[in-house]
């Protein structure tokens, strides 16, 4: 193998494939001509050795415990930026200056509402409906009330749709949560920042004053930052696949929400919560359940420990502890 190419010897012939350099992490091999030249294709179950696209958004090294957004280490981002700034960073490639931040925040607040007719769709779901199924349906339904956001032929159109979705998605999440808990629906408050507004829409109780707890807001802000992007995972791949047909952003994200629902993806978080609720109902004896997890004859599994990608100390935990 030369430094800039790989030579494949097959059926008496030699074929050269160029090395694709990376700014960080693994280098790649461009095999786009492999089938035409050799009649062969690659078999890579789970795509563990395959890069589907070039990206400058996120770099993740689970073995080393490293996570970068647009080249910035997550520890720096979580400590020095807020979630709105991080959304801008992921969308546009750089952190916003003061004027860019103000314009971005103003655009999001301009779309900080959901059509009243959306309530009828939400009312059609029983309270027992799974929130991810409800959220996926509501996200797709946004298309009907925002038909101009379907066009994805220009970056300007996509940026507009993204800002609209960012604003409205907080409503949909809050409304889904409140539907499950039998609470009246809240609307946004433009005097609050994005995370404060989401916090209020989620947890404000009827007939009670609601005070913004800065400690909770800070923790929520960091959680949203730490979960903002995680490379080409299952839900991201789903959104890209659906979007490759020039499907609108709302419908594409709806498909991604459905992928996130799966128990081997975001649904694993649900399993952790259910386990903690089980332990609480059983008296809170943590040692008992640790012993059950260690017992090979016991079917109980300790959820939330171990990760397919993160092999080092979890970055989220590091940043949350520092916050």
Automatic annotation (TrEMBL):
Gene Ontology biological process: tricarboxylic acid cycle
Cross-referenced Gene3D superfamilies: 2.20.28.60, Citrate Synthase, domain 1 (1.10.580.10)
One Pfam family this sequence matches: Citrate_synt
Superkingdom of the organism of origin: Bacteria
UniProt xrefs under InterPro entries: Citrate_synth-like_lrg_a-sub (IPR016142), Citrate_synthase (IPR002020), Citrate_synthase_bac-typ (IPR024176), Citrate_synthase_sf (IPR036969)
GO molecular function, one term: citrate synthase activity
Pathway where this protein functions: Carbohydrate metabolism; tricarboxylic acid cycle; isocitrate from oxaloacetate: step 1/2
Reactions performed catalytically: oxaloacetate + acetyl-CoA + H2O = citrate + CoA + H(+)
Keyword annotations: Transferase
PANTHER family: CITRATE SYNTHASE (PTHR42871:SF1)
Family that this chain belongs to: Belongs to the citrate synthase family.
Protein known as: Citrate (Si)-synthase
Organism, as annotated: Bergeyella porcorum
């Amino acid at each position: 193998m030369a430094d800039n190419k790989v030579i494949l010897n097959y059926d008496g012939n030699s074929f050269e494939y160029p090395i694709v350099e990376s700014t960080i992490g693994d280098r790649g091999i461009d095999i786009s001509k492999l089938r035409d030249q050799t009649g062969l294709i690659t078999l890579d179950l789970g795509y563990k050795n395959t890069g589907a696209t070039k990206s400058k958004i996120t770099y993740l090294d689970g073995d080393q415990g490293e996570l970068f957004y647009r080249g910035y280490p997550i520890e720096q981002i979580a400590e020095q930026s807020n979630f709105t700034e991080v959304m801008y960073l992921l969308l546009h490639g750089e952190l916003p200056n003061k004027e860019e931040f103000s314009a971005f925040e103003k655009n999001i607040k301009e779309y900080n509402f959901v059509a009243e007719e959306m309530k009828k769709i939400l009312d059609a779901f029983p309270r027992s409906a799974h929130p991810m199924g409800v959220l996926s349906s509501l996200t797709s339904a946004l298309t009907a009330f925002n038909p101009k956001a379907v066009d994805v032929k220009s970056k300007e159109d996509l940026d507009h749709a993204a800002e609209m979705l960012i604003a409205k998605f907080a409503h949909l999440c809050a409304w889904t949560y409140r539907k499950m808990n039998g609470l009246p629906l809240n609307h946004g408050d433009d005097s609050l920042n994005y995370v404060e507004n989401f916090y209020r829409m989620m947890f404000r109780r009827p007939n009670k004053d609601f005070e913004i707890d800065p400690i909770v807001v800070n923790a929520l802000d960091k959680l949203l930052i730490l979960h903002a992007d995680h490379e080409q995972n299952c839900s991201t791949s789903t959104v890209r696949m659906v979007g490759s047909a020039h499907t609108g952003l709302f419908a594409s994200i709806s498909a991604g929400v459905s992928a996130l629902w799966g128990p081997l993806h975001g649904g694993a978080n649900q399993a952790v919560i259910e386990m903690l609720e089980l332990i609480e109902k059983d008296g809170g004896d943590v040692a008992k359940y640790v012993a059950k997890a260690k017992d090979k004859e016991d079917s109980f599994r300790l959820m939330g420990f171990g990760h397919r990608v993160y092999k080092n100390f979890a970055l989220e935990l590091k940043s949350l502890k520092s916050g």
